[in-house]
Structure formats: structure tokens, C-alpha cells
């Protein structure tokens, strides 16, 4: 079976990074997605989170993106067309 992939990044306030990540990963888990990679860049004013999720059905990834837009505190959601080189695949 060929899984669909969703590499993306988003920004979150440094004071809420862990709480926001917990909410995002819970949405992914409840949606049947698998975490392929996770990286965090803390050099800027906000933390930038890089995720790569996979699912057996691309529609599940679309649903995740719709739900992600409703998470408070997330800004600059950006699906990546190419794999981000700093991500470490598990």
C-alpha cells in the first residue's frame, strides 16, 4: 500500500509550543495519521514546527489540514512541496 505524505510547517509562540504540539499530535492520532518526522526550529521569535505525516488515504490529510486551521495559536501553516532536509524520518 502506498501512503500519502503531508510535509508541513507552522509557527507557534515559544510559551505555548508543548501544549500546541500536544493538541496537533492528538488531532493527527485521532485522524488515523502516522507521524513520519518532527523537527523544531527555535532560532526565530516564534518556534517553527516541521511535521511529516502519512496516511493510507489522502482525504485524511485534507481533513487534518482543515482541523489544524482551528487550533488556537498556530500561524503560518505552510504545506511543503518538497521534503524538508532538516527533518529526521523515524
Summarize the structure in words.
With 90 residues, this protein is of the alpha+beta class. It has one domain (4-79): Alpha-Beta Plaits. It is built from 2 helices and 4 strands; from the N terminus they run E-H-E-E-H-E. The chain has helices at 17-30, 58-68, and strands at residues 4-12, 34-41, 47-55, 74-79. The protein has a 4-stranded antiparallel β-sheet with strand order 2-3-1-4. A hairpin with a 5-residue loop joins strand 2 (34-41) and strand 3. The chain is globular and about 35 Å long. This is ACT domain-containing protein.
Note the topology.
Elements: E1 4-12, H1 17-30, E2 34-41, E3 47-55, H2 58-68, E4 74-79
Antiparallel strand pairs: 1-3, 1-4, 2-3
H/E topology pattern: EHEEHE
Task: Report strand %.
Answer: 35-45%
CATH class, anyone? Alpha Beta
Helices and strands: which structural class? alpha+beta
Q: How many domain modules?
A: 1
Number of DSSP strand runs? 4
Total helical elements: 2
Give me the CATH superfamily: ACT domain
Strand count, sense and barrel status of the largest sheet are: 4 strands, antiparallel
Q: Work out the radius of gyration.
A: 12 Å
**CATH architecture tag:** 2-Layer Sandwich
Gross morphology is globular
Helix content: 25-40%
**Strand arrangement, major sheet:** 2-3-1-4
* Mean pLDDT figure: 87
Organism: Massilia frigida
Protein name: ACT domain-containing protein
